[in-house]
Amino acid sequence: KAGVTQTPRYLIKTRGQQVTLSCSPISGHRSVSWYQQTPGQGLQFLFEYFSETQRNKGNFPGRFSGRQFSNSRSEMNVSTLELGDSALYLCASNPGHPANYGYTFGSGTRLTVV
Amino acid sequence: TQLLEQSPQFLSIQEGENLTVYCNSSSVFSSLQWYRQEPGEGPVLLVTVVTGGEVKKLKRLTFQFGDARKDSSLHITAAQPGDTGLYLCAGVNSGGSNYKLTFGKGTLLTVNP
After folding, report:
1. How far is CA A59 from CA A44, A47, A51, A88, B98, in A?
2. Does A42 contact B97 at a Cβ distance shorter than 8 Å?
3. C-alpha–C-alpha distance, residues A47 and A78, integer Å
4. Which of A39, A48, A105, B65 has a CB 3.0–4.6 Å from the CB of A33, allowing a cystine?
């Protein structure tokens, strides 16, 4: 079965611009989570969507937002990009009960802000 | 804020050696997961441990969940170059619908041939 698909794989943006990243979860998985990974901070939780509703949110500024569609596909948007937003953005899907089932991650989108 | 401390942060060993990676927290988790990540890719789930004191084996990898469900360890026997990667532990919040993974910062393992 197909894994988690993230597009694009690489992205270069200029400071001040906005960006939208896409994630298609494994078929049947209703939970989609987003993480930011940087060398200094490791993986940090951005938010989680379940059945089109944001179920949980991390400690990121309001410039980071997301949404989930009825087919479980998810997008995250970052507005007014800053140099510090350069990171690997990872999407992970789960059937809905992560305590018992692990997450399946996509390969990520490498965002570089210049 | 729940934190997971992983140690060591870096580990470089020779093929055939044994090693243990530790994951510690002051918080209780409903379960703990271990992932391995290779450069340019997302983490891949290795195991989920749910019950305090649980031990799971995956070929040469042995995972243990602490009795109090606050800590875990990963032991690799006779390490091979293919084991090279970033090993991440992640705790799942206990209770409610507040689902998110809290990740440790990882242990970067290099196994030299």
Report:
1. 9, 9, 22, 17, 14
2. no
3. 13
4. A48
Q: Which single residue is written with the structure tokens 């040469």?
A: B60
Say how far apart CA A42 and CA A63 lie, in whole Å: 20
Q: Compute the count of residue pairs across chains A and B with CB atoms less than 8 Å apart.
A: 75
Q: What is the pLDDT of residues B62-108, one digit of tens each?
A: 999 999 989 999 999 999 999 999 999 999 875 565 667 889 999 99
* B39 touching chain A per CB within 8 A: no
Q: Which residues does B29 contact at the CB level (< 8 Å), separation at least 6?
A: B2, B69, B70, B91, B92, B93, B94, B102
Buried b (16+ CB within 10 A) or exposed e, A41-67: ebbbbbbbbbeeeebbeeebeeebbbe
Which residues from B are below 8 Å from A90, CB to CB? 42-43
Please give the angle made by the CA atoms of B21, B60 and B12, to the nearest 5 degrees: 45
Q: Determine if the peptide bond prior to B39 is cis (ω within 30°).
A: no
Q: Which residue has the tokens 């059937």?
A: A95
Of B31, B94, B105, the CB nearest to A100: B31
In Å, how far from its chain's centre is CA B103?
10
